[in-house]
Amino acid sequence: MKIDLRKLTGSNTVSIPFSETLDLREETLYGAKPFQSPVQISGEVSNESGVLRLKGTIKTIYSTACARCLKPLDILLTAETDMILSDDPETEEEDDLFVLTGDSVDPADVLVPALILQVQMTYLCKEDCKGLCPHCGADRNEVDCDCDKKQIDPRFAALRALLDSDEDKST
Ligand SMILES: [Zn+2]
Ligand SMILES: [Zn+2]
Predict the structure, then answer these.
(1) Would you tell me which of 17, 31, 36, 66 could form a disulfide with 44, CB atoms 3.0–4.6 Å apart?
(2) Structural domain span for residue 108
(3) 81: buried, middle or exposed (CB in 10 Å: 19+, 13-18, 0-12)?
(4) What superkingdom does the record give (predicted)?
């Protein structure tokens, strides 16, 4: 939804509120499509003594998986912005400055990047998630497989070395 900024600059209107649900299901991030839930945006564009300003909130459920045990995770993600809108194309993009291209602004163009900034590279289901066993694939939060003991038992390692060297001699 585009907001016509001429309504703000050419009249006595001081602010235009917006509220919208975005569909970002096709948006790809880190090789996945994590925005499977509706994305809510709301806020207002205002004219403060000739300075255009967009204040808004964006929120959604970010669908991802624990980086260690791969359990599906739903993360509540929100971001808030308070941006000055500049129509000077010479202005450099800054953290709190959005450069306009024309007489209108789509609040999604301002708010979606702010939401994506909140996304972490990886999430864990819990801080001490033990992850999956690299040998048998068991979820080590739930079962105690004995792969680790097998792998690191030094007696087995010594025996294996012995067997290997015997094999070398016989060939
Ligand atoms: Zn986990
Ligand atoms: Zn295992």
Answers:
(1) 17
(2) 3-117
(3) buried
(4) Bacteria
